[in-house]
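User: Some background: our group keeps a shared notebook of sequences we're curious about, and every so often someone picks one and asks for a predicted structure to add to the entry. Today it's my turn. The entry only has the sequence so far, pasted here. Could you supply the structure so I can complete it?
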Amino acid sequence: MAARLQAGILPTKALGDSLQRMRLKTQGGCAGAVLVTPSGTVATATSTEVMPWACRNPRGYQCGSRPDEHPAS
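Assistant: Of course. Here's the predicted structure to add to the notebook entry:
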């Protein structure tokens, strides 16, 4: 039973990782931004290499954007 559950989890993680890589290509750096991981964990990014899943800085700007381009909503 446990092996069957593991097999079901692995493809989901692989899919999540590939989606993460696609987002990394399309979003700018997230240094200092607040990240919300797919599991709901909140972390603070320290470099442009950190995974910007649902990443927004504390004022609500899109990651990698200049504040004057994306005012906080």
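Suggested note for the entry: Helices lie at 2-26. Residues 1-10, 24-28, 47-62, 64-73 have pLDDT under 50 and may be disordered.
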